[in-house]
Design a protein that fits this description.
By secondary structure, the chain is α+β, with helices and mostly antiparallel strands. Helix content is 16%, strand content 36%. It has one domain (5-193): Electron Transport, Fmn-binding Protein, Chain A (Pnp Oxidase, Chain A, Roll), CATH 2.30.110.10. The model has no long low-confidence stretch (mean pLDDT 95). It binds flavin mononucleotide.
């Protein structure tokens, strides 16, 4: 099968892309609402793009009615936010947090997820996530033709790693035990991938 995307209507392009860019990491994004409650939503158009400065991108589309999603609206107004890496056992809560709630209604409160405050930082983190990336808005660029998306450049300022899954080796390097994190990833449609076997290959000289 050979598929030419330019011949497909946009929804088909979306389905084709999400079935073929596999697997995708998921940004479980916590932002602050106007009333100081917290908004939480998953985004799988997400990846690392630069180390200096440390940048990840998240591509955030519009609501069906053309309004901005709460996450990007919050981040335009308040530049700090937190991207979590969810574990496989958090699939139900993560999926539930993608429901469209009225603006200002908190997915965190709705799902009874707990938050942990971090000394010196404005934003808390989800208590049960093993990895949390504390970010600041670096830039937002508008992309897309008819229905524009916000491409958020997230500058990662600080990273929380649960002690159960990370150590500093004798050589002084950070080692994250991914089998303890069990990161959840996204496939096409309603499919997700659980964490598999760790493979190993040294870079050629
Ligand atoms: C696993 C998963 C990944 C998603 N990825 C994206 C994405 O990359 N971009 C996007 O705009 N919406 C994505 N969505 C949909 C948003 O999570 C959904 O629109 C959510 O209601 C947005 O919340 P907000 O209005 O509180 O920001 C995804 C949903 C799920 C379940």
């Amino acid at each position: 099968m050979q598929i030419k995307l330019e011949q497909l209507p946009t929804p088909q392009v979306y389905f084709t892309m999400t079935q073929t860019l596999l697997p995708r990491p998921i940004a479980w994004l916590l932002s602050e609402n106007d009333d100081a409650s917290y908004n939480l939503a998953p985004f799988s158009y997400f990846n690392a793009v630069c180390s200096d400065p440390p940048l990840a991108i998240v591509s955030i589309g519009k609501q069906d009615d053309g309004r901005d999603k709460d996450s990007i609206r919050n981040i335009r107004e308040r530049h700090e936010f937190v991207i979590h890496i969810a574990s496989c056992d958090q699939l139900a809560a993560l999926n539930q947090s993608s429901a469209t709630l009225p603006p200002g209604e908190s997915e965190v409160d709705a799902s009874n997820l707990e938050l942990t405050r971090v000394k010196g930082l404005r934003m808390p983190r989800l208590s049960d996530c093993k990895i949390a990336l504390f970010c600041e808005r670096h830039d937002i660029q508008m992309i897309g033709r008819k229905k524009q998306q916000s491409l958020l450049f997230a500058e990662i300022k600080e990273i929380y790693l649960d002690d159960s899954c990370a150590e500093i080796t004798e050589q002084g390097r950070l080692k994250v035990h991914t089998d303890k994190v069990q990161p959840l990833s996204r496939l096409g449609a309603s499919e997700y991938a659980s964490f598999g076997e760790v493979l190993f290959a040294k870079r050629p000289d």
